[in-house]
């Protein structure tokens, strides 16, 4: 009965130990009552049915004990508590901008740069809980694969569908940044972030990357840039009449441009030369841009005194009514 109930005056409950004594006292008093008429035998009344008043003779005493018990519990001030947490999130909107040009098929990452990037981005998405994330892909052009959303399942499904060749080949970094800015510029989030991953040199698009970065800076968007590719040369699969042949090709990443973009917007540039390093980079970005959460715990008490006191009074009033009226003794 007292599960999930706490008592403000718990010591008062010790008075419940008096109830067995009161019951014992009542029973002893009944044994000491002297009958008004003495009979040598009760066989004469053996076939007389017991009336309802006789059946209820002990009910007032029982009600009195229950009423006193309920009042003792009431004065112990029973309480139930509701508790929880108010969570206030700062809110971060993130645009993930991914290069899907042909060079992302190079196999210095396993199985290749594009699939390695998709795996790491998928892990990054799984690590977020309260942030809206969008996905922009680019090659010679750029388009939005997924607008800002908190439906991470949909986002991961769209990420899995990305493949090289979806867009005309090339590397339009400026267009990609501009597309990401369009996703974030109207955001009311406290923090707006773009993570741009590429393995090449800007050679396509109508928008200069530095100009696009300056526009991003005007809208308060911070850009983290990630250059993907091993140092020197990397194996690249070429289709030939005799099947796929791998040939070493030079790794060309415009690191100066990527550093400039991140510096303009207050972000940071990273260079990934392996699957492990790429994963570490996204882990670092995840820590840098983790949603700030303020948790306020609360605990509210609900007093149950009234219900127990009311129940006790009703029991005592019922006992009094039975004793003084319905079951009263004749003079």
From TrEMBL:
Transmembrane segments: 7-27, 304-322
Residue ranges that the Swiss-Prot or TrEMBL entry lists as coiled coil: none
Swiss-Prot/TrEMBL keywords: Cell membrane, Membrane, Transmembrane, Transmembrane helix
CDD domains: vWA_BatA_type (cd01467)
Gene3D superfamilies linked to this entry: von Willebrand factor, type A domain
Occurrences of domain VWFA (ranges): 93-285
Domain of life: Bacteria
Protein's name in the database: von Willebrand factor type A
């Amino acid at each position: 009965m007292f599960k999930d109930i706490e008592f403000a005056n718990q010591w008062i409950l010790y008075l419940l130990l008096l109830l067995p004594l009161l019951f014992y006292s009542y029973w002893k008093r009944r044994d000491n009552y002297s009958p008004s008429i003495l009979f040598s035998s009760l066989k004469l009344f053996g076939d007389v049915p017991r009336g309802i008043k006789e059946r209820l003779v002990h009910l007032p005493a029982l009600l009195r004990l229950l009423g006193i018990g309920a009042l003792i519990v009431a004065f112990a001030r029973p309480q139930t508590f509701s508790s929880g947490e108010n969570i206030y999130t700062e809110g971060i909107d993130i645009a993930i901008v991914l290069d899907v040009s042909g060079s992302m098929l190079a196999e210095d990452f396993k199985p290749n740069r594009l699939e390695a990037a998709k795996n790491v981005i998928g892990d990054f998405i799984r690590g977020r809980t309260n942030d809206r994330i969008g996905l922009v892909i680019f090659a010679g052009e750029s388009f939005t694969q997924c607008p800002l959303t908190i439906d991470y399942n949909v986002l991961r499904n769209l990420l899995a569908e990305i493949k090289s060749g979806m867009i005309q080949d090339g590397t339009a970094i400026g267009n990609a940044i501009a597309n990401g800015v369009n996703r974030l510029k109207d955001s009311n989030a406290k923090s707006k972030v773009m993570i741009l991953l590429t393995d090449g040199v800007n050679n396509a698009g109508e928008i200069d990357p530095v100009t696009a970065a300056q526009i991003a800076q005007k809208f308060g968007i911070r850009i983290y840039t990630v250059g993907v590719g091993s140092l020197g040369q990397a194996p690249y699969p070429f289709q030939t009449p005799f099947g796929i042949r791998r040939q070493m090709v030079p790794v060309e990443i415009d690191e100066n441009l990527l550093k400039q973009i991140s510096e303009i917007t207050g972000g940071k540039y990273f260079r990934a030369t392996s699957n492990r390093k790429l994963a570490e980079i996204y882990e670092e970005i995840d820590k840098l841009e983790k949603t700030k959460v303020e948790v306020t715990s609360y605990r509210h008490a609900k007093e149950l005194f009234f219900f127990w006191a009311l129940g006790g009074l009703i029991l005592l009033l019922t006992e009094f009514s039975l004793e003084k009226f319905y079951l009263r003794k004749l003079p």
